[in-house]
C-alpha cells in the first residue's frame, strides 16, 4: 500500500495504517510506502498538520511507525523537461541508509535514470518520458 501525503490526514495515524495493512494481508507479507508528494520542495497535504511538516521529519515519523519505503515525487517537475531534483531523496538516504527510496518527477531520458541509479536510489518513477518516447524501455 502506498500512502500519499496528499491523502494523509494525521501523521499520528501512520502506525494505525501500517497495522491495518498488515492485519488485512493475513499470512501474506504486506508493507506500506509513504509517497512524499511535493510542489517546489514543500509537502502537499490535505490538512495543515501534514503540509506544514518538514519532509524529513515526516519520514522519521513514518520510519518509527514501521514504514521502510519512501517515494519522493516532485510534482512541479512532472512533464516539465527540467530534470529530476534528488535533493530530498539524498537527505533521506543520509538519514535512513536502510530505507528503500524511489525518486520521481522530471525524469527526461536514460541519462537521468542512470544518474539517479548511480546516486544509490532503489528505483525511479518515470511517466512522461515513456509517453513521449524520450525514454525507450527496449533500449539498453
Architecture overview:
With 140 residues, this protein is α/β, with parallel strands linked by helices. The chain has one domain: Alpha-Beta Barrel (TIM Barrel), CATH 3.20.20. Helices cover 35% and strands 19% of the residues. The protein is built from 6 helices and 6 strands, in the order βαββααβαβαβα. It has helices at residues 14-25, 48-51, 55-64, 87-95, 110-118, 128-132, and strands at residues 2-4, 33-39, 42-43, 69-74, 100-104, 123-125. Strands 1, 2, 3, 4, 5 and 6 form a 6-stranded mixed sheet that branches. The longest helix is centred in the N-terminal third of the chain and has 12 residues, at 14-25. The chain starts with a strand and ends in an 8-residue tail after the last helix. The mean pLDDT is 88.
Overall 3D form? globular
Average pLDDT across residues?
88
Q: In total, how many domains does the architecture comprise? A: 1
| CATH architecture assignment name | Alpha-Beta Barrel
Give the % helix: 25-40%
CATH fold-level label: TIM Barrel
- Strand tally is 6
Catalogue the unreliable spans: none
Radius of gyration: 15 Å
Largest sheet, in brief, is: 6 strands, mixed
Range of strand content = 15-25%
Q: Could you spell the SSE succession in H and E letters?
A: EHEEHHEHEHEH
How many angstroms separate the termini?
Answer: 31 Å
Number of helices: 6
> Structural class given helices, strands, pairing?
alpha/beta
Under CATH at level 1, the class stands as: Alpha Beta
CATH homologous superfamily? Aldolase class I
